[in-house]
Amino acid sequence: MPTAAVAPPRTFLPTAPENATVTDPALVKRAVKAAALGNAMEWFDFGVYSYIAVTLGKVFFPSGNPTTQLLSTFGAFAAAFLVRPLGGMVFGPLGDRVGRQKVLALTMILMAAGTFAIGLIPSYASIGMGAPLLLLAARLVQGFSTGGEYAGASTFIAEYAPDKRRGFLGSWLEFGTLAGYIGGAGLVTLMTALLSTEDLLSWGWRIPFLIAGPMGIVGLYLRMRLEETPVFAAEIAKAESSRPKVPLRQMIVGQWRALLLCVGLVLVFNVTDYMLLSYMPSYLTSELHYDDTHGLLVVLGVMAVMMIVQPFAGALTDRVGRRPVIAAGCAGFLLLSVPALLLIRQGSLLAVALGMGALGMLLVCFTAAMPAALPALFPTKVRYGSLSIGFNVSVSVFGGTTPLVVTALIGLTGNMMMPAYYMMAAAVIGGVAVWFMAESAGRPLPGSAPALEPGDVRTRPGTPRPGQRARAAAVGPAASRQGAMHP
């Protein structure tokens, strides 16, 4: 009688450490998608504001001097960054206590409301000085809400991601940022091409801001469907209650070294980011007298290429580390900022595209690495709060003021190379920060258990999925009762 074939014994991978979290791919994908899409909606308005700055200057700050109009518009732009540290000090600690998901939903509501309000403000011709004052108030609401956005979104993805893929998954956050900028730039470019100057000044400029209303509703829906991170749920389980409040002083003084590194890294990241994505369109138009539509299309094309490269660069940081990639970006900006700007100043479409493209590829070194590198600077119990404070202080003082400072420097000195020198100075500071930072690629977040993928651990037929086991182990009964995670 023939015997049934005997299946060969299965080979199992090593079991995970007892305290390890085995991530659920479906939940990770949902978390990354919602954080990235929400971030894109948050930054859509920043892209719109930057690319339509010349028009806004004429609507809200009438003056015979175009440079004065641009300075006034960028002054309102920079004012939002002055309140970002305040927003970080409110939303960051709150996120460490009540949860990342709730705070991210709140920041989305405030941001959408502030952006939508700009589209409703009457012009200077209608109500006089009330118009720029209302614009300033709306920008302050935006800035306050943004104080809790980037740190929360990057923390959310970092705490969900498996250790060996944190760079790749985190890079999608900046993919969302670029998508928001492209959405804003594309809409402004389309309106500039289709509308007359009179229509753009009278009503066309309102369209991008009014779109923020429905976009905010979509973003809120996505974020309300998010579940709390396993890392934060584990912290809740340890306390068997809500997280105890960590004093603000401990988030600053107790993390002073990590905060200094954070400020330095964010400085080079955001100075170069705002220089390329926010300032350069206006630089091409107002300073180099470049055609509006063609200048915007060049920037749009550069951002599209950056989006394509972004995930591959994020995966590269998982293989070679965050430090080498960030260091390469700093060295590149130090050596190539002047040649790139000379190409841009040459004026031809090809030269401008090559110069902007070079700066864009260097910027990818930061956009791909920072979403994973920055959360790894701080332990779980203060990650959201400390990162919010360090990130927003640096952005407020250095990043968001970049368009205003560079415009003023050019006006004072008459030197059109100021943007290059400013980026070079930022690259030096960033290089010092990279020298002192520790490598975090492939390692657990400080204060967190190792985060593995299902394929990294042994599984047997009939047993729960690894993600379920991990959540049960990491969350514990107390957090499960609170509904922190779902199968």
Please supply descriptive tags for the structure shown above.
single chain, 487 residues, mainly alpha, two-stranded parallel sheet, 75% helix, 1% strand, globular, disordered C terminus
Enumerate the strands of the largest sheet in spatial order, edge to edge or round the barrel: 1-2
Strand residues, percent:
under 5%
Any low-confidence stretches, pLDDT <50, length ≥5? 1-14, 459-487
Choose one word for the global shape: globular
Structural class: mainly alpha
Overview of the molecule:
It is a single chain. The chain is an all-alpha fold. It is about 75% helix and about 0% strand. It has a two-stranded parallel ribbon. The two termini are about 45 Å apart.
Please specify the SSE layout and strand pairing:
Elements: E1 21-22, H1 25-51, H2 53-60, H3 66-82, H4 84-98, H5 100-118, H6 124-127, H7 130-146, H8 149-160, H9 166-194, H10 197-204, H11 206-210, H12 212-224, H13 230-239, H14 248-252, H15 256-287, H16 292-320, H17 322-346, H18 349-373, H19 383-399, H20 402-413, H21 418-436, E2 451-452, H22 466-481
Parallel strand pairs: 1-2
Helix pairs in contact: 1-5, 1-8, 1-9, 1-12, 1-15, 2-3, 3-7, 3-19, 3-20, 4-5, 4-7, 4-19, 5-7, 5-8, 5-12, 8-9, 8-19, 9-16, 9-18, 13-22, 15-16, 15-18, 15-19, 15-21, 16-17, 16-18, 17-18, 17-21
Would you summarize the structure shown here?
The chain is mainly alpha-helical. The protein has helices at 25-51, 53-60, 66-82, 84-98, 100-118, 124-127, 130-146, 149-160, 166-194, 197-204, 206-210, 212-224, 230-239, 248-252, 256-287, 292-320, 322-346, 349-373, 383-399, 402-413, 418-436, 466-481, and strands at 21-22, 451-452.
